[in-house]
Structure prediction request, 267 residues.
Amino acid sequence: MDRYVDSKGTRIYYQIKGTGQPLVLLMGFGADGNTWEKHLVEFQTDFTCVIIDNRGVGRSDQPAGLYTTKLMAEDTLAVMEDAGIEKAHVAGISMGGAIAQELVLQNPDRIISLVLVSTWSAFNVYTRKVYENLKKIRAFCPPDVFMELLQLWIYAPPYYELKYNDLKKGQHSAANNTTPQTKQGFEGQLDACILHDTSDRLSEITVPTLITVGALDIFTPPSYSEFLHKNIKKSKYLIFPHGGHVHHWEDLAGFNEAVKRFLLEHR
Prediction:
C-alpha cells in the first residue's frame, strides 16, 4: 500500500507491507525506502512494515532549507499518525538510526524497541569533514564516479573483492538514473547527519535496543556504536567482524536473522 502524508508542508511518501506488530524502517542518506527490499522479505512475515522515503529522497518532497534529524523524526511521527499506528518497533540505518534516536527521545511511549545500525550520537571533527567533503565532490563528479567513491567508503574490502562486478553495475545504474536525488535533498540530508547530536540524552532511551556495526566500518566506525551501547542502558551490541558500513548487506542473512530474533523477543 502506497501513501503520502503532509508533514509541515512537505509530502512524505511511505509504503505498508506485511502483517503483525508495526515496524517502522528508516534508511540512510541518499537511499529511499526501497533499499529495504531484501530485508523486507524476512521482516514482513511477522511485522507490518512501514517503509518511509525520508524528506529529500525518493518519492518524498526534496525541499530547500535546513534538515535536522529532529525534523525528520517529526516526519516519521506524521507517518505513524496517518497510518493509525500508536506504537511501533523502529529500525534505522545510518542517518535512519540518527532519526530513530530523536524519534524515541521525543516519543518514548510510542516505541516498543529500537534497532540502530551503523549510526552515531554525534560526529567528531573527522567525520564531519568527510560529510562536508561529500557535498563538494558530488557537485563536480559524474554520478558513476561519485557512486564508486561511496562504495569505497561503505563496503568492507572482503566484500568489495568478492562482489566487485556487482558494484560496477551499481555505478552503471547511477550513471543512468533519470531521477537522481536533487542537490538540495542530498545536501539537506547531509546537514541533518552533521548536526545530529543526542550524546547528552542517550540515557533517556529506555526501550530495548539492538546496536549493530561492522568491525571494518570506516564511515561511522565502531567507536560510535560502542558509545551508544555504553550510554543506552537496555542495549545489546552486535559487531559483524568482516562487515563495513553496510554490513546489513554484506551479511544479509546474518543481519536479518539477528534483527528479527531481537524484534520477536520484544513483542
